[in-house]
Design goal:
heterodimer; A: 578 residues; alpha/beta; Flavocytochrome C3, Chain A, domain 1; Methane Monooxygenase Hydroxylase, Chain G, domain 1; five-stranded mixed beta sheet; 37% helix; B: 251 residues; alpha+beta; Ubiquitin-like (UB roll); Fumarate Reductase Iron-sulfur Protein, Chain B, domain 2; 7 strands; elongated
Chain lengths: 578, 251
Amino acid sequence: MNIGRIDSLKVEEFDAIIVGGGLSGLRVAIELADTMNVAIISKVYPLRSHSGAAQGGINASLGNTEAGKKDSPKSHAYDTVYGSDYLADQDAVMFLAEEAPKIVIELESMGAPFSRLDSGLIAQRAFGGAGFPRTCYAGDRTGHALLHTVYEQCIRKGVKFFDEFFLVDLIKVGNNIAGLVSLDIASGELVVFRSESVVLATGGFGRIYKRSTNAIINTGDGLGAAYRAGIPMQDCEFVQFHPTTLYGTNILMTEGARGEGGFLFNKNNERFMSKVAPKAMELAPRDIVARAIDTEILEGRGFENSYVHLDLTHLGSEKIMERLPGIREISMYFAGVDPIEKPIPVQPGQHYSMGGIASKYKGDFGETPLEGLYSIGETSCISVHGANRLGGNSLLETIVFGRYVGRAILKKNKQKKLTASDVKKAESDVFKSIENLFSSWNENTGKKPVEIRTAMKNTMDVNVGVYREASRLKQAVKDLQQVQKDFEIMHIETQERKFNFGLIRALELRSMVDIAEVTAVAALWRKESRGAHFRTDYPTRDDKQFMVHSLVTREKDELVIETKPVTLGLFEVKERAY
Amino acid sequence: MKEKTFVIFRQKNPDAKPSYERFKVPLTPGMTVLEALFYIQDHFDHELAFRYSCRGAICGSCGLTINKFPQLACKTQVHPSEIKKHPRVPNLEFGDLKDWDQEKEILIEPLPNMSIIKDLVVDMEPFWKFYREVQPFFDREITDEAPESTQTFEDARRIEKLVYCILCGMCWTCPVSGKRKDYIGPSNLAKAFRFIDDTRVSEKHRKEIYEKAMQENGVPACEKIFACNSVCPKGVMPGTAIDKIRKLEKK
């Protein structure tokens, strides 16, 4: 233990601290930068964030195309609620849809390089589950284009960045956030960031699975920290499996490829989507297409029992080069397939977490039950995606809610509530607990992180996938309890701290083992099929018992599940068919 | 099981003497260099330092010198291992490398012309400093009032390649970056041109960016070697963009 270092503990103090430099975090910073002393801490350079990997686009009912003339925020909201299998909170969805056109226009004014129509207006393409072509795009690298644009505006505004700082734990005093302890990756030092407004914008936790489209950095650091601070995790059983990920590496093959007219074929050359969604075909929502593909593979109609074909060859080289150049590049680099000539081998893979930190819609926007702590983007669950997110709605969520979380923080009285002595004591306690953790990791004689991580990913892939059932989910819970035990006595040397990515990845694993367990436990609890959560033993939706959000917390040694009602009222609840 | 030997550049801190270490990694189908590095970190030495994020060639984190040629580790296949060469790319030296068997071993070194912090991690701060220096942003008033400003299909299309720059820093392979620490560098000049050539940028700001790019340590410092175009993993063609800025001067 290194208690002697407490006195020299580095402290940075700001009006607001944002954790995460993706689109959500950057957009909050833009809102705050003019009037507040704000900093973003990010474990990678912000432009390396996973927002940059989003491909297809951002939804807004601009009605720029001929076919989209009659589109409206209400249609957008309806499609989103219907696509969510009625688990999304309808007031929040309506708000998202109403703000969408404004936010896209705002992005354009910041310089976002959107693709254009002949009219010169922002181009829009068809996307899964959408009644109109409303997905605005920049080729097939929309996330990259937007991430750079919003980062550029942060540079313009002189936002303060702490790049390569890792969030370890939150600091709280009573029911108030007081800041956080981070690890400066370069120096290896623990640094306190003191603030009574903290925003968690750390993205999703897809890396609890092996087969995932997510960046390697998507490890749920913000969720883990919040969970350890006692904040409930909402709707984590709803994991989106993207239907088309590249066979082998599981890199995303955008829904835009189907939006532009791509077909899916099994090995018998059948467009199998006709069996499950005769009207929408390939443009049914992701949960439905992912299940259809998995069914083909499970029933022996896939190629090599592992994948189906995403065929773009009929689109012609000109359209592919113009609209889907990134998809072509990825297929060629990573699978040796030129989609102009040959179909792309694809299979479903984990893609997005609909669930996240339970955060408010009404009142202080995005605030968690811990006062002054906000969460946003994939990290949060304000519930606009419900049981299944529509493509093009996640980029939208980051920017719209980023703006409003910023405004909620601005509205709050900046007067400090906490006394200096309480804050210092809390900081010192968290610091000590982290040093203790590092010491114990150093002294433990258990397994290496890689073994524990592999066991977690294996059980998530096998037992908490597209199709679920009680016996497998029970197995997953059992496996993950063992994973937790192994993690308790995990060994990794922690003496050398500078650029020790092994240590960083061990800290990431600390959050992932918790979130994986939450996901499996909630999936076992939800005895119905809704959106992305499909139980073969309960194959229908059960609105009577389960039209509720799940909230999971840890109490002593067990996980506790509570529920809260879904906000309805705008759209009538119906059966879902495409 | 088939194995591959990796010869990896190691340096404990900025002042330490560099060395090379060999690791044998069991091959899996389709394995990339990035995956091999993770294998080494997971199984042999968790302190092996390298940057990474998306593993899909879009984030720009994992640029390394692989077999003496700058490449993204995530999109470089371990098998078959390729020895890339290009007449415009200079010979890159990092440490005292002896007996590297080009046929059998994959050599991993950091990005060239940057200071080494630890192992394969280089100091990117100068790179970001020059990025910020060209003022790569729109200076319009931010507004959410419809309609959006228009741009023709062709005008939007023309800057697309420049927009795709992932700022990986591989174009610092440029020999000018090697000899001049104050050179703004190819990607950042290309970034300047992305804004200069965007029809929506105000005349005032276009001029400001142009002037930044035309400083003595910017476009005039470029020696038209075009190593940048040869190593760029995204086809951004920074050297060509620099040339276009230069031609604006003549107009």
